[in-house]
Structure formats: structure tokens, C-alpha cells
Amino acid sequence: MSDEKSYTGSDDVKKIDSSSASTKEEATVGEAYDKEFERRTMRHVDWRIIPILALVYTFALIARTNLGAAHTAGMGADLHMLKGNRFSIVSCMYFVPYIILQLPGNLVLRYFGVRNWLTFTVVAWGAVQLAMGFVKSWGYLVLCRVLLGVFEASFFPSLLFIISTWYKRHEVHTRLAVFYLISVTTGGFSSILAYVFSLLKGKRGLAGWRWIFIIEGAITLFLAIITWLFIPTFPDQNTFLTAKQTELVLRRIDEDRGDAIPDPMTLEKVKKHLSDWTLWAYGIIFMCCAMPSYSQSFFLPIILRGMGWSQTAALLLSAPPYGPSVITTMIIAYFSDKHKHRSGYIVFCVLVCLVGVSLTAFAKQNEVRYFGAFLTNAGNSGAIPTVLAYASNNVVTHSKRSVQTALTVGLGGVGGIIATTVFRAQDAPKYIPGLIATIISQGIVLTLLAILTVHFLWSNKQMREGKRKEPLEGQPGFFYTL
């Protein structure tokens, strides 16, 4: 399994006079009260942080991936996107600024303030999303997608950064899984929403696909108000907990990894963190895990249409593959946190995803190919939050965590670029080359996991045997999570 930092804080040491039974009883009651207080505090944190972040990120995800639904609803024909690789170009251009601006966006998060910065980004991409409903050519759609990438760039890594600062290392996977599942599952049903919005075809002289962008953009602008009012910040800056509750949260983090209070961000630190090869390994793993997710979001409605289903059926059938993954992902998150182990669960998820992609690519019957989409999503949905937890567990300090989350999500955007370029228009409707590329990406995940596991095992062993002069990650008592 993995290792966990051992720490005993002075506040936890209770001196009890063994000759006094009443003192023992009082101490026992006090400990029970403290545990109950901790449980209630962290439950309050859960309800205050996870739902609001997941809700807003859901519409970031929808804005990023609703092109497939709009294309199926008639956008491709209206904007002359059926020629060459225009659809892939429009899909791809989003990721260029999205990747480049990940790290800068995360680095200014504290400078501008969580509420100010994230509310600005939500307003900006909501306005762009709404504007996409009025474009007259595919060229203007490309411009809107670029702007969407600019404004969404720092949002997801900022959310991961915030969540990871509130919890102990082996509590974070379950929270990330809940956050991810709420977002992705709700986003997965966006194809049904898109179908409903497309029924407004002809209203005010607008095509149905235009209403998809207009309504979803308007909803996002409303969510900007929710963001301004309720978005949580870092533990040391929060205003929704009492002073006693805040002290508890900060103490728990210090006991686990010693970085409750942020360290100053400097250019030298950023360079040092970027020179750590393990951060790039996490990012490449996340990039490869993102490929199946993006391919499902962008191309599943088109693939289903190619299987012979109607436009309506293709949109509606794109949603069910996201359902069963809710159960499987939460089971994986629960046992991963319980066992304090990550890499083995990632391997299992990747193997399930491989089976699913292979069925969709090579099975003869359309029903079996469609079943492959369920397996692909189940494996992929389980792997993504596990990878995020794996990366989060193995870094210490706010500065390195900021760089790590931005780099991981940024390289995940590269997975989006790869997905939109390997799924070429000339390969429709089966997209066999794209599916083969996705299979290869999962092999890369398994290779990198093997390398990281050997490295972490060796590093932990050296630390236990006293053969290392410097503590792992600069934190005494810290061991890598396998």
C-alpha cells in the first residue's frame, strides 16, 4: 500500500493522572467531543465547498464540450463545417490558450482573490458562450472558442488547488470523485438538455443549435452571481467557519503534510517546481486519461449517428453511458482513500477503459460498440479523479501545489487537442484511427505508472533506512503515496 506522514502534535497529547478515574472519564468525554466536533466541521466544509464548485464547473465543462451536440443539431450544415477538418479545427482551437494560460491563471489566484478572479472568469466565458449562438460563419466560431479557452483556462486548476488545501491527503480522493462526478455526470446529460433547447428551432428566427449556446450561456451568467456570493476560498482566508473550526482545519492539514499556511510564491520556486520530472509525469498521465473523456464528449453523438440512429436518438443515447460510472467511481474512491493507495486503482480503471474503447472500435454489432462507450466512461471516470488525487498526495507546499495543478490540467488540455485532431472528419463515422490513438494513450499511462511506482518505492525505502540526507518533498516524516 502507501505511506502516510506520521505526526503527533502537542495539542493532541493529553496528560491524564492515572490515579484519578474521574479525570480519565473527563478525558474520554473530551476526546469524543473533539471527534464529533471535527466530524461536524468537515461535513460543513464538504457541503460548503463541493456542491458549489461542482455546479459551476459543470457549465464550464458543458461550454467546452457541447460542440458535438450543436453539430448534430444542425450547426455543421449551417456554418459549412462539413468541409475538410473544420469541425476538428473549431474543437481544437479552444485548447491552445487553455493550455498556455493554466499556470499564469493559478499563480494570480491569491493576488486577485478567489472570489474576484473566479467570478470574472465565469462572467467572461458565459458571455462568450452566449455570443456563440449568434455567429454567422465558422471563422467567428473559431474566435469564440479561442476566447472560451482564454477565460476557462485557470478555472479547473484553481478548483483543484482549493479543494486539495482543505483536506488530508487520504481524504481528498473521495471529495475529488464527488466533485468530478457531479460535474461530469450532469455534463453528460447536457446532450439531453441540448436536444430540449434545440426544440426551440424557429423561435425568433433562430436555428435550434443556436438556442443551445444562448440558453447555456445565460445560465452560466446567472451562475456568476452564485460564484460571487458563495465561492469558497483557502482555509486560512475563509469566512464561513468559526475561529475554532478554522483552527481545527489548519491543524489537521499541518498534522498531515505541514503546509496549511501558504508559502510565498517566487519565480525561483516556479522554476524549481517545473524541473521536477514527477510533475510532468502526472500531467502526461492526466493528458492520456483526458483523451477518452474528450473523445466521448465531442464525438460520441456523431459516432452514434453513424451507427444509424437518428439525430434525436444520437443526442439522447449519448447520456446513458455516464450513469453507471457514478457508482463505480465512488466505489474506487472509497477504497482508494481507505487503503491510502492510488496507482493500482488507476491501472484497474485504465484496463476497463481499454476494453471499452476496443469494443467501440472493433466490435461488429452496433449494440456491442455502444456498450463499449459505457465501459470506456466507467474506466475513464474512475481514473481521472484518482490521478488527480495521486498527484495531489505527492506534493507539499502551496506554491508547488499551484504549479502541479496547473501543469496537470494544462497537459490534460493537450489530451483535448490530440483527441480533436486524431478524430478526423474523413474517418467518420467509426473514427477507427482516433480510437486506436486512444488505446495507445492508455498504454502510456500504464508505462508511466510503473516508472513512478518504482521511483516512489525506492525513495520511501531510502528514507526509512536513513540513506537520504534531505526529507522527501522537504517535509520531515513525509512518504510518497503509491
TrEMBL record:
Pfam families: MFS_1
Superkingdom of origin: Eukaryota
Protein's UniProt keywords contain tRNA processing: no
Originating species: Agrocybe pediades
Bilayer disposition of the protein: Multi-pass membrane protein
Major facilitator superfamily (MFS) profile domain residues: 49-461
PANTHER family linked: MAJOR FACILITATOR SUPERFAMILY (MFS) PROFILE DOMAIN-CONTAINING PROTEIN, PERMEASE-RELATED
InterPro entries the record matches: MFS (IPR011701), MFS_dom (IPR020846), MFS_trans_sf (IPR036259)
Gene Ontology cellular component annotations, sorted alphabetically: membrane
Annotated protein name in UniProt: Major facilitator superfamily (MFS) profile domain-containing protein
Keyword set, alphabetical order: Membrane, Transmembrane, Transmembrane helix, Transport
Transmembrane segments: 49-67, 87-109, 116-134, 140-164, 176-197, 209-231, 277-294, 314-336, 343-363, 369-391, 403-423, 435-458
Region (Disordered): 1-23
Subcellular location: Membrane
GO molecular function, one term: transmembrane transporter activity
